[in-house]
Amino acid sequence: MVSVGDAGREVGPDARRTAGHVAFDHRDPGTSESEWATALGERDLTPLDLDGVGHLVVLAAHPDDETLGAAGLVGRVAASGVPVTVVVATDGDASHPASPTWTRDDLVRVRRAELVAALAAVAPRAAVHLLGLPDGGLREAPDQLHRALDAVLDAVLDGVLAADARAVPESGVGAALGASTRDSVVLCAPWAGDGHRDHRVAGEVARAVATGRDLDLLEYPVWMWHWAAPSDHAVPWDRMERLDLTPEEQAAKAAALAAHRSQTAPLSAEPGDEATLGQEMVRHFERQTEVFVVTRAARASDAATLPQSFFDDFYSGRSDPWGFETRWYEERKRAVTLASLPRQRFTSGLEIGCSTGVLTAELVGRCDALVAVDIAAAPLEAARDRVGDRATFLQLATPHEWPAGRFDLVVLSEVGYYYGSDDLDALLDRVVGSLTADGVVVACHWRHPVAEYPSSGDAVHAAIAARSDLARLARHDEADFLLDVLVRPPAVSVAARAGLA
Q: Which end of the chain is more exposed for a tag (fewer CB within 10 A), N or C?
């Protein structure tokens, strides 16, 4: 059984991934640094490109996260004359819930002082924002964190926090930049797949903010080094880039890490006062290299919606180009999609981008009537052969062409990132406009970048989240895809609608 301590670490007897989080015990030895060092040495990770950074905004879930995951980056950028702003979501006051000698107020005071001392070692001119959100409780406060991070970025982009930006050098980091501009601000945050629930929420919020603002996002793992092994599929090697630290930067990071004594050393000899970060855990952050999971800004605002010819070419001579019929990944994702439907049956369903009809064949069993739409003729022909007259199939170039009628279920599965920004907004307008008062929208999208697509799965879900006419009823979040279930506000849970809650 997974148990969650007050500090917010999702702990248990083993390390297993479940629906977007990892169960682990921070008291276990974890994966050795020597194993990670060997793996990092065997992989030719791309060097992190910092040219053009005009302002670095670092989000931490707790005081010490920014030191563990990104102190070298912070020091590199700050030494180049580029302003750094650090936003710390919680005070980390639940790190020792069973301490017999320290109160939570003691920990707030000490951990804030440790943060200031740590930043003084790497970036003494950094601006710091302490939000004081509940330690271990970010899952219940994502909107507060989102608003606070947005406010900081608004100030950065307005130049309020960029007074030092005019001192940037002639070349290299921050070259030729004055006050911060949208393209020059870089957001750095905990990796959303890190396992710790506060890190996960902080990472998810950072992803939504970065995609909504077209900002580059650098995510730093912390607990991944503990619970994962280099061979685990959860480790995003394909998106990782490295920052090799100079001896001076490594020494400054060591000084910053030493400042967090309340986490790296016992508070006392009493049970409950043990160090939160064990010796092997600390070794991961003494290495010469920092590693970031990098998502470059899509800059999708000017990207055009993919034309019909793209899909005609894609399907030409290929009966199952996505592997819908053969891949367990696709079969599992369909099962998750169907399980997420908040009602057993719907009167009228609409599926946008039905492709060859594999999901359509499942949806017809849940709808009295179903309209399935695609832009290309070839997949529609395959879908008709598969489903027959149990659904109505239409070849339409959405969102400018749209089926008549009102629907109490609209499914957007792996389709939103094909639209340019304006067309995506128009698509969502069309969806809401054709939704019944009790209608349900299900959106599910692949999260990994695809160069040919004008947008990304995260950007699509950020655009959906920004709408006031849709409220999220449920979310499934994992490294490979996001799935949101949305209704007209207010969102009322399945149990509440049934009178069970």
A: N
Phi and psi, residue 59, nearest 5°: -100, 135
Residue 435 · residue 486 · CB < 8 Å: no
Is residue 85 within 8 A of residue 56, CB to CB? The reply is: yes
Quote the tokens at residue 312: 């005609």
- Tokens at residue 170, please? 């002639």
- Tokens 């499942």 map to which residue? 362
User: Would the pLDDT of 191 be above 70?
Assistant: yes
pLDDT digits (tens, 9 = 90+) for 309-330: 999 999 999 999 999 999 999 9
Instruction: Read off the DSSP letter of residue 49.
Output: P
pTM: 0.61
How far is the C-alpha of 16 from the C-alpha of 238, rounded, in Å?
21
The whole-angstrom separation of Cα 294 and Cα 101 is 41
CA distance from start to end of the chain:
24
The separation between CA 422 and the C-alpha centre of its own chain, rounded to angstroms, equals: 23
Strand partners, 471: 487
pLDDT of 367 higher than 80:
yes
In this structure, are residues 161 and 155 in contact, taking their beta carbons and an 8 Å threshold? yes
CA 113, 119, 121, 123 torsion-angle sign? negative
Longest Cα separation, the chain? 73
317 is written with which tokens? 């001579």
Amino acid in the structure at residue 2: V
